[in-house]
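I am hoping you can look over what I have pasted underneath with an eye to the fold:
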Amino acid sequence: SHNPMRRWRRLGVSVSAIWNNRPRHFNIFANINENPDVTEEKRTKLKTQLDIPERVGFVRDIKGCAARVEGLDHVQKGELLEFDQGIQGLVVNIRKNDVTAAILGEEGSVGKGGEVSPTGKSLSIPVGSGVLGRVLDVTGKPIDGLGNLKDVMMRDFEWSKVQPYPSSSIEPIFTNIKVFDVFRPLVKGGKFGIFGFLDYPNTKLALRVVESQRANEDMYFVYIGVGKSRLAEEKILAQLEEMEIMNKTTVVFAGDGAGAVLQYFAPVVGCLISDFFRDNGMDALVIFDDFAKHSQAQNYLNESSMFRPSMVQTLADIGNHFCALPPSMGAGSSTALMLGARNEEPSVEELNSFLDSSVYIDEKLAAKNMVPGVALRDIAKSTPSPFQLPMVREFFTRIFAVLRNTHSLAERAKVADSLGIDLIEEESVEDELEFVDKIQTLINKRSDLPLQIQLIALYFASKSLLIGVEENDIHSYEQSVADFIERRRPELTRPWKPDREIPGFIFDDLDLLAQEYFKEHVLSH
């Protein structure tokens, strides 16, 4: 009799191989569900006509923020699942009999035995002008009660690590905060750290930087709040509204109740939103508040082995998103302010290995409500920033030497005084310590005066002019210098080009002007 297998044998094909590789089943619903050309309406109609049930799995086990799900044999890695509580999960690992899903919700929000449905969708984040003025969770859903998002594009979540792109130029971001503009300049495309002992002073300084850029039409902001309490989140939103800058800001929250997965994903989501502005020729400033919570979440995920090492993005990997693109690519930029505590993991040293520069908030100065609250000792011990513009560098070199000597003398005087040693005259010790306090106040004082006037005022102060200035008059000192220069040398009040070096004779003139100012404003009083 005719045997159809003989032809396959003649072709050298094993009959057993054909049998073993036969289709075990044909799931027509899977094809319908995964075909992008099939609309939701048509899919529902076909399901009704064919009476095909939804593929439903169940939660076999829960371990922290990971769920082991059985019964789903057609899902793909990176696909979103939906638990019966309405919480979403993300497929991160597929095995023969089950899949592992990262729970995108609070720990304990999903229980064993619950049903799990596939969505056929991957995790994607809304980007574009439509996210401005909105508050989102880590999955991109609005949580501000303002309705659905409009005018947005969806961008797939970034699993692969971004390669660093070197910034094409050094363009400063002037903030009217001396600690940044003079000592630790911010530049577009850079990564800057703000370290403190308390949580809120860091946030307060970062928001002060945001406020300084309110008039910059090409600058947009992304605030990423990780591990914040509901009260802290409300306080931050109120400040953004008060500064009238919320319409240029996107806020992403993964609060203290969010699971480790959400806290880990939050900065990556914020980076994807800022990348849109950068890649379309605009500037984005990202406030990452704070990195310690992200690091804790990352450590948790590493210990749980939920993600492969290649899927885990460290802070350094996240930092690769930030750069300034060349004109040929639109000249957009994305800049980061990374906030955290000095006494938490990761260590300051570890972070400084990939940050461009950092400032350190002093606990005592912060307690006095001084913003930014940076101590003279931290400025005196630091090294000059490579991002300083020529104009600023000329002043900084002269001012910095005086500040370092002053700090050193004051520290020696404190030690000698504590040991009962007459190192120098007691009156001189008091003068030096008083000068340190006054120069700290001046450095931390906010000013709307032109940068060159602020630099001249600091230069005058470095000549010990502040010793004769009363504590209450420190806040009006800069304005008095501006008025004095306007009367004596009005040409110095005209805008200077920061990228031009200052001729040496200018400082000779400033030395003479400092003496005249001292006679007029200090000796006369």
Q: What stands out?
A: Residues 22-32 have pLDDT under 50 and may be disordered. Residues 390-418 form the longest helix (29 residues).
